[in-house]
Design a protein that fits this description.
The structure is a homodimer. Chain A has about 450 residues and is α/β, with parallel strands linked by helices. Chain A has helices at about 5-10, 25-35, 40-50, 60-75, 135-140, 165-180, 220-230, 285-300, 325-330, 365-375, 390-395, 410-415, 425-445, and strands at about 80-105, 105-110, 110-115, 125-130, 150-155, 185-190, 215, 235-260, 265-275, 310-315, 335-340, 350-355, 400-405. Chain A has two domains: about 5-90 and about 250-445, Zn peptidases (Aminopeptidase, 3-Layer(aba) Sandwich); about 105-235, Glucose Oxidase, domain 1 (3-Layer(bba) Sandwich), CATH 3.50.30.30. Chain A is about 30% helix and about 25% strand. In chain A, strands 1, 2, 3, 4, 5, 6, 7, 8, 9, 10 and 11 form an eleven-stranded mixed β-sheet that branches. A two-stranded antiparallel ribbon of chain A has the order 12-13. In chain A, strand 5 (about 150-155), helix 6 (about 165-180) and strand 6 form a beta-alpha-beta unit. The interface of A and B includes residues 108 and 219 of A.
């Protein structure tokens, strides 16, 4: 991209950074874009948080350290009203975990407990495996088959370029534990909801409240278990999935602001989530999202006071089920949300500009759409396609949503695995995200167009 | 390849499989090649061994099960004189292993003990880290620095297409433990000798006899530790690397033969190794090599009695240091080796035909070289370039060596890691190997050219 526009780059490099006062002209947009494509702050935030804190499972001491880190960093960057909004929740932590085929082919398999999994008793559980190739096959099977068994559901995810497949494929993580518990299984294993072939299982929420020990096998191990089962002899497994749940533990949202000139214009809520699963260092999920949105906000701050207040939220406890988002919505009930936007889909390039706003506001998006084209961002998939995880709580209350949808082709290789580490972030792609977010905020933070409220469908 | 030669394929598909009696004609070679490119036996062997046995660490009960599996399978395939040639050795097994930064940035790192590592005491070792960017930097440093510390050597491997880099880069696995022990370090960690960025450390031999606990960090973790160290504050780690060494444990080589018509013509020794490291299922290292060589030998058997005896050796205990190869050389001392060839470089395509034979025999290789070109196999890197791991013991005694060198570009992503599993083998590439090996044996098993002895250099 950058070489194609090098002539323009040379031109705009001599211009001062535009003041944030009206819709940027094409030359101003180019200046904002080219400047953001040299951003170092996003990398520094992702590198710092993943190195100096590492994993930060919700409501643990590590997430607490992450909040301390975040407050110090956001204050140092010059944001206003930097604070923690605390809440309490049930903390789930994992202990020892092992899976092994005992007979007929003794060997270990790579396993990780799903979030909220019950703990197996001392020594684990040893039982025969009953295997199903998909969630539908498990649902359709004779319920009596599962009684006293370790249920294994080998529901396979396929690669897609966006978030579309996740809902379809991750259903197994919630439904299989629930159904296995109902049918009297002693434990349940799923094929990881993921697309890589490394010995790194994908954890994720789904087992809380089911009362059953639930784990995910890495893809090579899921296929190994299926091969063993297909030999036709009874397969017995030993499964150790130790875990602990503790009520009323502290977590919190970290919040920072750029005050706007007109409080009545509503608040722009942007951010990602500070907590991570415990297996990796939460680099693409979601240090990257914090880094991108914070770097973009900092760039806006440098351009002067925006019309609308920009509130940066580093949500706590997203992974166990949007606990921080619910606490935020409760604490800020009744406030006017100009729009909400979230970066929680990795560190891949922004591919499309999406909206879930009032139809009447769509024409006002046109200059921004045009400016984003030069970053390789397409016009998107129709109004209503913008979505998010933490901000879904606000969306359900009618808040308009803006989305910068990323390339997710390889995201589910890393998602919720030990492999979610800093090395998976590409600096060039991260900078393209910062540029897209900065442009988006530059256009929309000073525009008075009302983007909401949005009629809430039942989808 | 196959589409390019489809006309020829149609032609030769109607011919009977050639009898093995003289150098194959081009049409016969094409028939052998096309037939082998449909091979299913190699996949069945790799799939069976990795599924029904899995990992098979040297001198363990699992390696014993692998020998039983191997004998049954080789007998069923119709090989002659199928037997185990037993030997005893020191068995090394791993126990619990954990690495964590205690301060200033508490977090876990992915670690695996190196083969032969000493065991840490109960509770592990907690000490300050002294880090070096390379083996040379460690060697050049003040010896006093290491005293009482955990030495970390972040010696980085780069990707090459062949075996060339392995010697250079794996030196750290042997030299770092030795030097760390000499300098009074309490433990030693290396950056894994590997090229992937997954949280799967690469184990491997190197620590035996050093008396120090030695482990490898996965690449993301090695870089994480370096980032922590570069912050400038003392980094303290806790390291648990439990292991056990037991003398006089049973292992063995599994041997099968195709008797030749002329015992005086010498024996062709081919094969790979049956043992594996314990982290993966030993699919590319080295079920693939056993599968390829055995499938090729089986094809030769179907063509009739060769001039030279073909001896298939599934070596035991290669990984801890060619223990099976040494036992083989001792048990078969004085026998005439027509040539030795080994498949122990993964399941990637054969890229080149290599030799380490008497110069006078090189012209006799020409028809074979020509036949291999149609499989995409190049002429190689000059006489002397053929080498092997187990067969290096025979090579040092003057045995001629034939090599079918494979594409190893991605081999060190998997080598000695948990990721070495069946899914990493590509059926098409495996079949190309079988075709190359079958052609090689078809040409050379009936050729009376003396390929050796070869002058033994000191290299």
């Amino acid at each position: 991209m950058r070489t194609v526009f090098s002539a323009l780059t040379l031109l705009v490099a001599r211009l001062p950074l535009p003041a944030l006062s009206a819709a940027p002209t094409p030359a101003e947009a180019a200046r904002i874009r080219e400047d953001a494509l040299k951003d170092d702050l996003a990398w520094d935030i992702a590198e710092g948080l993943t190195t100096e804190v590492g994993q930060r499972l919700a409501a643990t001491e590590a997430e607490e350290r992450a909040r301390v880190w975040a407050v110090a960093r956001l204050k140092a960057l010059g944001f206003s009203k930097v604070r923690v909004e605390p809440f309490t929740m049930t903390r789930w932590t994992r202990g020892a975990e092992r899976a092994s085929i005992v007979a007929p082919f003794p060997q270990s398999l790579a396993v990780a407990a799903l979030g909220g999994s019950s703990s197996t008793p001392p020594g684990g559980i040893t039982a025969e495996v009953v295997a199903y190739p998909s969630l539908a096959a498990f649902q359709a099977a004779d319920p009596a088959e599962a009684k006293g068994k370790i249920v294994f559901v080998s529901h396979a995810m396929t690669v897609t370029s966006d978030m579309n497949g996740y809902g379809t494929f991750s259903a197994v993580r919630r439904e299989a534990p629930k159904l296995a518990a109902q049918r009297g299984a002693v434990a349940v294993l799923i094929r990881s909801v993921g697309t890589d072939y490394h010995r790194n299982p994908h954890t994720g929420a789904g087992a809380a409240g089911t009362g059953i020990a639930a784990g995910a096998l890495a893809l090579p191990d899921a296929e190994q278990l299926m091969r063993a089962v297909k030999r036709g002899k009874p397969v017995r497994m030993n499964l150790v999935l130790e875990s602990r749940s503790e009520a009323d533990m502290p977590s919190g949202n970290v919040i920072a602001e750029i005050p706007g000139s007109d409080p009545a214009a509503g608040t722009i809520v942007i951010g990602g989530h500070l907590d991570s699963w415990d297996l990796g260092t939460g680099a693409v999920d979601d240090a990257a999202g914090l880094a991108i949105t914070t770097a973009a906000a900092k760039r806006i701050m440098a351009m002067g006071k925006p019309l609308r207040t920009i509130r940066l939220v580093w949500f706590g406890a997203e992974e166990p089920g949007l606990v921080g988002a619910a606490a935020y919505a409760k604490a800020h009930a009744g406030e006017k949300v100009a729009f909400a936007a979230e970066s929680d889909a990795g560190a891949g390039r922004v591919l499309s500009f999406e909206t879930s706003i009032r139809e009447e506001a769509l024409p006002a998006m046109q200059p921004l759409r045009q400016a984003l084209v030069e970053l390789g961002v397409t016009k998107g998939h129709g109004n209503g396609a913008a979505e998010g995880s933490d901000i879904s709580v606000l969306a359900r209350q009618g808040a308009p949503i803006i989305g910068l949808a990323q390339d997710m082709t390889r995201y589910f290789d890393l998602h919720h695995t030990p492999d979610d580490t800093l090395d998976k972030i590409d600096l060039g792609e991260l900078r393209q995200n910062v540029a897209a977010w900065t442009l988006m905020l530059a256009f929309l933070a000073n525009d008075r167009t009302e983007l909401g409220p949005v009629a809430v469908s039942d989808k």
